[in-house]
Amino acid sequence: MDAITRRRFLVASGVAAGGLIAAGGAAYGLTDIFATAGDRDPAARTLVLVTLYGGNDGLNTLIPYADPAYTKARPALAYDAGHVLRLDDAFGLNPAMTGLHQLYQDGRLAVVRGVGYPKPDRSHFRSMDIWQTGRPDHPETTGWLGRWLDASGGDPRLAVSFEPVLPPLLAGAHSAGATVPGGEVKLPATVTTAQLTALGKVDPAEPAARQRAATCFADLTRIQDLMADVAAAGGTDADDEPAATATGGATQPLEQQLALVARCVEAGAATRVYSVSLGGFDLHADEKAAQESQLTKLDKPLAAFAGRMSRTEAGRNVVVAVYSEFGRRVTANASDGTDHGTASSMFLLGAGVKGGMYGDPPSLTDLDQGDLKYTTDFRDVYATLLGDVLGADPARILNGWTGGLTSSPLTRR
């Protein structure tokens, strides 16, 4: 059956929204990723990048509970010392982050404070573009990990996104990462698994593009089976709805995305970079409870993923990095929310992470027009990830940037 007929079948049956049938060279199925199993250095590390779309409020995530300026700036939003999950005598985590708090206690969570860039932009789209391209000083058409992919041979399966659309950070000048959207595929009543199985049979006489279309059909049923296995093992909550946001993020819950990453890591796939995301952090009103809800959707999947990764050698070589496009303003607005700000914290976690606090905390009183002044350039974090996780030359990827974190939390085990 040719690709045109397969496409018409999708449109007629209502399955066209299934991301696994995305057109273009960057659309891959799980079979393509699993096919690389064993084709990597067993000691090589893997980076999982978690993007929080919407601008997460960093001050109510890593909470400076001992600073009186914090309570003064946001009296209705501030957490008192009795409610935070204490990390030390000055900082604590949001009450929703019990899993990451335990990881910190276990020495497997590093918090990099005051991360930002010069001349910050408070637009979601421009700031995310800056973070994903790694160029705060000049417009850029390639992502920082896309440029790493270019330098690493260009095989799309080395950098995989479990999001509906390939994020700009995986787009290089000569290559791009692979998009393998996951999640449950709900078939219309008129479409049977047997029909998909028939459509997924590859004819060796077909051109490569048509064979790819066929394997994507086969992946529809494999994804269903995989998600059923994950749910049966307690890896997902069947009642958890995908996060809906106007400012980006995957359409399937984070735990499903991370479950697919875990399967690929455990299968020994050659992939070195995975991109996943969670949206819904643009909270201009009634923020406190809403952010706790969002942070729960981040914390539980991350803690479960870290636990699962700790049980295998390949998993212990995984480093997870969590970031958002900006933090929020120090002072709360009149709607018990916060508006777009600047610097925030990044989280790094994994068995090979040396836990603790890194970078200087920004002052809550010495502000730039009401916003935090960054103390750590995000390119320093990227340089550390490139050098210590991916074994790359940061200056080559980051347009000559030669910085890095003064003390790297990514020590070898």
- Distance, first to last CA: 51 Å
**Strand coverage percent:** 5-15%
Mean pLDDT across the residues is 85
CATH architectural name: 3-Layer(aba) Sandwich
Pfam families: DUF1501
Protein name: DUF1501 domain-containing protein
Quick gist of this model?
InterPro entries: DUF1501, TAT_signal. With 413 residues, this protein is α/β, with parallel strands linked by helices. 32% of the residues lie in helices and 12% in strands.
Element layout with pairings:
Layout lengths: L2 H11 L16 H5 L11 E7 L9 E2 L4 H6 L11 E2 L5 E2 L4 H8 L3 E8 L7 H10 L10 H8 L7 E3 L16 E2 L13 H7 L8 H25 L21 H13 L6 E6 L8 H23 L8 E7 L19 E6 L6 E3 L17 E2 H11 L5 H4 L16
Parallel strand pairs: 1-8, 1-9, 5-11, 5-12, 6-7, 6-8
Antiparallel strand pairs: 2-4, 3-4, 5-10, 9-10
Helix pairs in contact: 4-10, 7-8, 9-10
Structure description:
The chain is of the alpha/beta class and 413 residues long. It has one domain (3-397): Alkaline Phosphatase, subunit A, CATH 3.40.720. The protein is built from twelve helices and twelve strands. The protein has helices spanning 3-13, 30-34, 68-73, 98-105, 124-133, 144-151, 193-199, 208-232, 254-266, 287-309, 378-388, 394-397; strands at 46-52, 62-63, 85-86, 92-93, 109-116, 159-161, 178-179, 273-278, 318-324, 344-349, 356-358, 376-377. The strands form two sheets. Strands 1, 5, 6, 7, 8, 9, 10, 11 and 12 form a nine-stranded mixed β-sheet that branches. Strands 2-4-3 form a three-stranded antiparallel β-sheet. Helix 9 (254-266) packs parallel to helix 10. The chain starts with a helix and ends in a 16-residue tail after the last helix.
